[in-house]
Each structure stands twice: as C-alpha cells, then as structure tokens.
Write a structure and sequence with these properties.
This protein has three domains: 139 residues, Probable tRNA modification gtpase trme, domain 1 (Gyrase A, domain 2); 89 residues, Alpha-Beta Plaits, CATH 3.30.70.1400; 75 residues, Beta Barrel (Elongation Factor Tu (Ef-tu), domain 3). 23% of the residues lie in helices and 32% in strands. The protein contains nine helices and 20 strands. The mean pLDDT is 96. It catalyses: N(6)-[(R)-S(8)-aminomethyldihydrolipoyl]-L-lysyl-[protein] + (6S)-5,6,7,8-tetrahydrofolate = N(6)-[(R)-dihydrolipoyl]-L-lysyl-[protein] + (6R)-5,10-methylene-5,6,7,8-tetrahydrofolate + NH4(+). This is aminomethyltransferase.
C-alpha cells in the first residue's frame, strides 16, 4: 500500500501532539503506542480508564420498513427480537458459513438500526449490505436505506470510564452492557468495547469529539491508549480479531461463537450461509478455537504451528503475545476437535524450538461488564 492510499484519523493531530507512534492497520495510519508504553497503557485501562480512537471502524445506519428483513437475511439473528436500545453481537456470513465480518447491531427505533463494522471490512460490508438491500426491496413492498455515517468514533474503557465520562458531562448510569442510544443529535453511544472491561463507544461529529477528548484528558484517570495495548487487552479477554481468529474460512461453530446465534435462528433462519452452518452443526466441526497458555515467559505468535505430544500436526496459533494483567504469555488458536480440552498438552514451534503449551479456558482475565 502506498502512502497516498493510507487513511488518516480526523484527530491525528491530537495523537501526534500526545507523542503517538503511528503504524499501518487495515489501511489506516493508527496510533500504536504513546510515550507511557504498551505495558502502562494496558494496565491503566484495567485499573482506571483508557481512551482509544477507533475512528477507523465504520458506523452504518439502516432504516425503513425493510430494515429487519435486510438484517435477518444478512445476519444469523432475529432483528425483530431486539428491544429499542438493545445491542447484539453477530456476523455477516458467506454461503459456506464463513465469517465475512463480526459486528454489533443496535436497535435505535421501530425501523432504525446502527451497525458497527470493522475497519478492514468496511467497504466490503457496505457493498454487501447495499446489494442485499436491493434484493429485499425486489421481494416486497418495503424499503431499506443504508447510510454510512461520517463520525469520529471513541472508546473509553476501564472501571473508571463511567466516572470520567460523568465528569465530562456525559451521564451513563442507566445504560447497561450491550445497549446503546443517541444521547445527543448526531451522537451514538453504546456500553460495549473490546477490552473485557466496562466501557463505552461513542460516535460523534469531529468538533464534539475534540471537545470531549479535551475534557476527558483533564481527568488524571484517563490516558490515551494505542492499538498495541488494545490488542493485548482483547487477547486477554479472549475476544476475536477478524482476519486472524475469525476469517471467511472459519465458521461460528469452529470459532466457539454459536452463543451469538439464537437456537430458533439456527433451526429455521433464512440468513446467508444457513444451510452450510446447519450441516456443520450436524456433523460437528473439524477444529475448534481454544485458549493457549505457553509455559515460561516466551510468547507464541500468530502463525506458529502446534503439535501434539507425539509430534503430529495439531493446529496453529492465530493470536499471541504477553498478557500484562495475566502476567504470562497468552494466545488463541485452532486445534483438532479431539484435542480441544482444557489442560491438554501441545507444543508450539517458535523458530525451531518446541514450546510446551497448555489448552486454557477463555478468557485469561475475567470480564467486568456492567450487565445490571
């Protein structure tokens, strides 16, 4: 990718002024770390409140009498079952039940939904949705309009996130985990995140975002946190990264994500990939996503091959690194279904050295969401 193709965050000047070190991610120039460093940024989020610029992600508003039908075709869930302000983790699947993207859908009104999609898939997701909308319109007397919103998107994560937002004039007390609403005109806020901590994601106009950031950073409990610590936080929390832990070649059954698909939708839903997913469920997946805990202090990284105790190929690592809160290396990967048992012993090949690895329950650190 050339420099001219790289996208830049609207608040890039604020990150530069804060001393951010930038790097490429999903076609964007993103702040990877700040002067405090990955370890302090990670631990500060777990103990206080981390401020993340996630404007590389995309928000889509879907509205109209065909909005539910569109989402029910695009995703393996029941859009009609969502209450106003309720959010749902779901997917776009292909016909083979591979995960094109994972996303969060929030019902904003009777015929209005907000979809939050991943950065690297945003253009493909929009094309996918618009194509499906044409199909929905052709099959009945209703419409489904899709608007890609131009918003700065911020995340405030950590046990003191609510208090920091309150001090900045944003009250969050009645909002529970996996719920969202529009607190002001052209704002969208949900109680959700990618760290395993209590937290919020806020989409808002750039001018409002600059004002909010200034207020938040006046609070000593709040620190800018970059993409590197965001990755270690989500890995400790056992959360998948699309493109690594979930891909168009991996189905929700293998990924251990069937909890996101209601039983009645599994049985009779007409979503894309439904027949393939039912077939996989019937015969059982050949591989499963598991947590991996290497012995010692040596992390195992993405792509490392896994072997059983007899030296036979057993799977591979999809995400790996050091967990500052767990205080040991952490990883996720896929192994043969017969080996996917907590405590099972494997070996990871790290530059020719076989590192002993235990299959571990996920997450590595407890989730601390505010569910009520």
């Amino acid at each position: 990718m050339t420099g001219d193709d790289t996208k830049h965050l609207p608040l890039e000047d604020l990150h530069a002024a804060a001393g951010a070190r930038f790097g490429a991610f999903a076609g964007w120039s993103m702040p990877l770390t700040y002067p405090a460093g990955v370890m302090k940024e990670h631990l500060h989020t777990r103990e206080h409140a981390g401020l993340f610029d996630i404007s590389h992600m995309k928000l889509f508003e879907i509205r109209g009498s065909g909005a539910e039908a569109l989402l029910n075709r695009a995703c393996p869930f029941d859009a009609g079952a969502l209450e106003v302000s309720q959010s749902k983790y779901t997917f776009f699947l292909n016909e083979a039940a591979g995960i094109l993207d994972d996303l969060i859908v929030t019902r904003l009104g009777q015929a209005r939904f907000m979809v939050v999609a991943n950065a690297g898939n945003a253009e493909a997701d929009e094309k996918h949705l618009r194509g499906l909308a044409l199909d929905v319109e052709a099959k009945g007397d209703f419409d489904a309009k899709i608007d890609a919103l131009d918003r700065v998107f911020l995340a405030v994560q950590g046990p003191e996130a609510w208090a920091a937002l309150s001090r900045a004039g944003i009250e969050t007390g009645s909002l529970l985990f996996m719920h969202g609403f529009e607190p002001r005109e052209n704002w969208f806020m949900s109680r959700s995140g990618y760290t395993g901590e209590d937290g919020f994601e806020i989409g808002l106009p750039e001018a409002d975002a600059r004002n909010l950031v200034a207020k938040l950073l006046e609070d000593e409990r709040v620190m800018w946190v970059g993409l590197a610590a965001r990755d270690s936080l989500r890995l400790e929390a056992g959360l998948c990264l699309h493109g690594l832990d979930i891909t168009p070649e991996i189905d929700p059954t293998s990924a251990g994500l069937m909890w996101a698909i209601p039983k009645e939708v599994r049985a009779s839903g007409a979503f894309i990939g439904a027949d393939a997913l039912r077939s996989i469920l019937e015969r059982g997946p050949a591989q499963k996503r598991v947590g991996l805990k290497p012995e010692g202090r040596q992390p195992v990284r993405t792509g490392a091959a896994l072997f059983d105790t007899d030296g036979n190929p057993a799977g591979h690592v999809t995400s790996g690194g050091f967990g500052p809160s767990a205080a040991h290396p952490v990883a996720m990967g896929y192994v043969q279904t017969s080996l996917a048992k907590p405590g099972a012993k494997l070996f990871a090949d790290v530059r020719g050295t076989k590192i002993p690895v235990d299959i571990s329950p996920l997450p590595f650190t407890p989730h601390r969401y505010r569910k009520g």
